[in-house]
Inverse folding.
């Protein structure tokens, strides 16, 4: 049998291709393994997460019960509460496409659309008091507005109505109310 001689250039290219393939396979294995946590870390994480998840689930269940007791009609139903608060949250974050898709589901469950509008109106009144860096302030404010859409910020609720002057006494000049908190600044146009 006659042995075929390869061109030296082909032999070099073949060696480079084999080395490149080995490097690619080795790095793919390393990349696939880098995303998994170490085995000793896996035992510690679920214990803390399970307690947090149970606490979070209990808080959500309590919120649904609170809403059902506070709101008469379908707006207090758990599915309406969940979808409605989600719609209000998405509208606040300017994700209107997703909000409208959720609003379609909200309507399909027979939930009142006016309650979403009232809750969002309430949320806009509290705009200056919501810290965008703390997600819990937004969700708690949305829940409070869902329960009581007529809520007012404390600065507006605390100002008493002026009393009628009695007799010939001249009324004292009214104190100027403190400025209401301004809404969050609008994001720059793209």
């Amino acid at each position: 049998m006659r042995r075929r001689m390869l061109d030296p250039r082909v032999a070099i290219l073949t060696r480079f291709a084999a080395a490149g393939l080995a490097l690619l396979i080795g790095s793919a294995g390393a990349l696939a393994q880098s995303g998994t946590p170490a085995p000793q870390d896996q035992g510690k994480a679920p214990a803390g997460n399970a307690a947090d998840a149970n606490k979070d689930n209990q808080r959500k269940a309590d919120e649904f019960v609170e809403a059902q007791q506070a709101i008469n009609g379908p707006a207090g139903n758990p599915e309406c509460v969940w979808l409605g608060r989600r719609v209000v949250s998405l509208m606040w974050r300017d994700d209107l496409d997703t909000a409208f898709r959720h609003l379609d589901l909200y309507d399909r469950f027979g939930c009142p659309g006016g309650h979403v509008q009232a809750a969002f109106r309430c949320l806009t009144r509290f705009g200056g008091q919501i810290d965008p860096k703390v997600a819990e302030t937004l969700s708690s404010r949305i829940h409070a507005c869902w329960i009581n859409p007529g809520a007012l910020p404390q600065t507006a609720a605390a100002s008493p109505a002026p009393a009628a002057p009695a007799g010939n006494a001249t009324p004292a000049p009214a104190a100027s109310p403190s400025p209401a908190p301004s809404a969050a600044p609008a994001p720059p146009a793209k």
